[in-house]
Automatic annotation (TrEMBL):
Keywords from the named record: Signal
Signal peptide location: 1-32
Protein name: Secreted protein
Domain of life: Bacteria
Protein's organism: Streptomyces pactum
Protein backbone atom coordinates (compact mmCIF):
# COMPACT_ATOMS: atom_id res chain seq x y z
CA UNK A 1 0.00 0.00 0.00
CA UNK A 2 1.33 3.37 -0.99
CA UNK A 3 1.03 6.44 1.21
CA UNK A 4 1.26 9.99 0.05
CA UNK A 5 3.80 12.48 1.35
CA UNK A 6 1.00 14.28 3.18
CA UNK A 7 -0.08 11.07 4.94
CA UNK A 8 3.50 10.29 5.96
CA UNK A 9 3.96 13.85 7.23
CA UNK A 10 0.71 13.64 9.20
CA UNK A 11 1.85 10.32 10.70
CA UNK A 12 5.23 11.79 11.70
CA UNK A 13 3.64 14.86 13.29
CA UNK A 14 1.06 12.76 15.12
CA UNK A 15 3.77 10.41 16.41
CA UNK A 16 5.92 13.35 17.57
CA UNK A 17 2.98 14.93 19.37
CA UNK A 18 2.09 11.66 21.09
CA UNK A 19 5.71 11.21 22.19
CA UNK A 20 5.92 14.78 23.50
CA UNK A 21 2.60 14.35 25.29
CA UNK A 22 3.83 11.17 26.96
CA UNK A 23 6.99 12.93 28.11
CA UNK A 24 5.07 15.85 29.61
CA UNK A 25 2.52 13.55 31.21
CA UNK A 26 5.25 11.59 33.00
CA UNK A 27 7.30 14.60 34.09
CA UNK A 28 7.29 14.96 37.86
CA UNK A 29 5.46 17.99 39.19
CA UNK A 30 7.32 20.49 41.35
CA UNK A 31 7.82 19.15 44.84
CA UNK A 32 5.44 20.54 47.43
CA UNK A 33 6.14 20.66 51.13
CA UNK A 34 4.01 18.02 52.85
CA UNK A 35 3.45 18.70 55.59
CA UNK A 36 3.85 22.45 55.24
CA UNK A 37 7.01 23.96 56.69
CA UNK A 38 7.00 25.23 60.23
CA UNK A 39 7.08 29.02 60.51
CA UNK A 40 8.47 31.12 63.32
CA UNK A 41 7.55 34.81 63.18
CA UNK A 42 9.50 37.52 64.97
CA UNK A 43 8.30 41.11 65.34
CA UNK A 44 10.28 44.24 66.19
CA UNK A 45 8.97 47.67 67.07
CA UNK A 46 11.32 49.75 64.94
CA UNK A 47 10.93 52.73 67.30
CA UNK A 48 13.55 50.93 69.40
CA UNK A 49 15.83 49.81 66.58
CA UNK A 50 18.47 49.43 65.17
CA UNK A 51 17.84 45.75 65.97
CA UNK A 52 19.90 42.65 65.30
CA UNK A 53 21.14 39.55 67.08
CA UNK A 54 19.18 37.20 69.34
CA UNK A 55 16.19 35.69 67.53
CA UNK A 56 17.10 37.70 64.42
CA UNK A 57 20.29 35.66 63.97
CA UNK A 58 20.16 32.95 61.32
CA UNK A 59 22.67 30.83 59.38
CA UNK A 60 22.57 32.97 56.24
CA UNK A 61 22.96 36.70 56.78
CA UNK A 62 21.44 37.63 60.12
CA UNK A 63 18.65 40.15 60.09
CA UNK A 64 19.09 43.84 60.83
CA UNK A 65 16.17 46.25 61.15
CA UNK A 66 16.82 50.01 61.02
CA UNK A 67 15.09 52.63 63.16
CA UNK A 68 11.75 53.74 61.71
CA UNK A 69 9.30 55.49 64.04
CA UNK A 70 5.92 53.78 64.14
CA UNK A 71 7.00 50.69 62.22
CA UNK A 72 6.67 47.02 63.02
CA UNK A 73 9.25 44.82 61.30
CA UNK A 74 8.59 41.14 60.62
CA UNK A 75 10.88 38.16 60.11
CA UNK A 76 9.35 34.78 59.21
CA UNK A 77 11.65 31.73 59.22
CA UNK A 78 10.55 28.60 57.33
CA UNK A 79 11.80 25.20 58.47
CA UNK A 80 11.11 21.75 57.00
CA UNK A 81 12.07 18.66 59.02
CA UNK A 82 14.83 20.57 60.77
CA UNK A 83 16.12 22.30 57.63
CA UNK A 84 16.13 26.10 57.39
CA UNK A 85 14.50 26.48 53.97
CA UNK A 86 13.94 30.22 53.79
CA UNK A 87 12.90 33.46 55.36
CA UNK A 88 10.75 36.46 54.62
CA UNK A 89 11.45 39.89 56.07
CA UNK A 90 9.46 43.10 56.00
CA UNK A 91 11.56 46.19 56.73
CA UNK A 92 9.49 49.32 57.48
CA UNK A 93 12.52 51.50 56.80
CA UNK A 94 12.31 51.79 53.02
CA UNK A 95 9.22 49.52 52.88
CA UNK A 96 11.21 46.56 51.59
CA UNK A 97 10.27 42.90 51.40
CA UNK A 98 13.15 40.41 51.40
CA UNK A 99 12.49 36.80 50.32
CA UNK A 100 15.21 34.19 50.80
CA UNK A 101 15.05 30.61 49.53
CA UNK A 102 17.92 28.84 51.28
CA UNK A 103 17.52 25.22 50.20
CA UNK A 104 17.97 23.83 46.70
CA UNK A 105 15.17 21.30 47.07
CA UNK A 106 13.28 21.78 43.81
CA UNK A 107 10.53 23.77 45.50
CA UNK A 108 9.90 27.37 46.39
CA UNK A 109 7.34 29.28 48.37
CA UNK A 110 5.30 32.30 47.34
CA UNK A 111 4.72 35.49 49.32
CA UNK A 112 1.62 37.64 48.84
CA UNK A 113 1.84 41.21 50.09
CA UNK A 114 -0.76 43.89 50.56
CA UNK A 115 -1.55 46.75 52.88
CA UNK A 116 -4.57 48.41 54.45
CA UNK A 117 -4.76 52.18 54.42
CA UNK A 118 -7.45 54.82 54.04
CA UNK A 119 -10.21 52.28 54.54
CA UNK A 120 -9.21 50.04 51.64
CA UNK A 121 -6.92 47.11 50.90
CA UNK A 122 -4.15 47.36 48.31
CA UNK A 123 -2.77 44.12 46.84
CA UNK A 124 0.90 44.54 45.91
CA UNK A 125 1.30 41.11 44.30
CA UNK A 126 2.82 37.70 44.87
CA UNK A 127 6.57 37.17 44.82
CA UNK A 128 9.15 34.40 45.23
CA UNK A 129 12.90 33.91 45.13
CA UNK A 130 14.28 33.17 41.63
CA UNK A 131 15.02 29.45 42.18
CA UNK A 132 18.58 29.20 40.86
CA UNK A 133 21.27 26.71 41.89
CA UNK A 134 22.84 29.28 44.23
CA UNK A 135 23.01 28.46 47.94
CA UNK A 136 20.77 31.44 48.70
CA UNK A 137 18.23 32.84 46.25
CA UNK A 138 17.09 36.35 47.10
CA UNK A 139 14.38 38.69 45.89
CA UNK A 140 14.03 42.21 47.28
CA UNK A 141 10.92 44.26 46.55
CA UNK A 142 10.74 47.99 47.23
CA UNK A 143 7.26 49.35 47.91
CA UNK A 144 5.67 52.73 48.56
CA UNK A 145 3.53 51.97 51.62
CA UNK A 146 1.89 54.82 53.54
CA UNK A 147 3.04 55.57 57.07
CA UNK A 148 1.11 53.54 59.63
CA UNK A 149 -0.45 51.15 57.08
CA UNK A 150 -0.91 47.53 58.15
CA UNK A 151 1.19 45.29 55.91
CA UNK A 152 -0.07 41.72 55.41
CA UNK A 153 2.47 39.06 54.46
CA UNK A 154 1.07 35.65 53.52
CA UNK A 155 3.22 32.66 52.59
CA UNK A 156 1.91 29.93 50.26
CA UNK A 157 3.38 26.65 49.05
CA UNK A 158 1.74 26.89 45.62
CA UNK A 159 1.71 29.50 42.89
CA UNK A 160 -1.54 31.38 42.55
CA UNK A 161 -1.85 31.71 46.31
CA UNK A 162 -2.59 28.02 46.78
CA UNK A 163 -1.77 25.94 49.87
CA UNK A 164 -1.59 28.52 52.65
CA UNK A 165 1.38 28.13 55.02
CA UNK A 166 1.37 31.15 57.36
CA UNK A 167 0.75 34.89 57.66
CA UNK A 168 2.11 37.83 59.61
CA UNK A 169 1.38 41.54 59.85
CA UNK A 170 3.78 44.43 60.06
CA UNK A 171 3.30 48.18 60.03
CA UNK A 172 4.79 50.73 57.68
CA UNK A 173 6.67 53.37 59.65
CA UNK A 174 7.53 56.95 58.91
CA UNK A 175 9.84 57.70 56.00
CA UNK A 176 13.39 57.04 57.13
Amino acid sequence: MRTSIGERFTGLVTGALLTAGALFATAAPAQAYDPDPGVFAYYRDTDTCPCSGGSLTDPFDDTYFAHDAGGTAVKMELNDAGWFIGKVEFHPSGEKLWIYDTRNDGDTFYVAVGYSSGGSYHDLGTFSAPGTSETVDLTVKDFAIPDGAYVDITVYDGAGRADYIAAARGTGGAVA
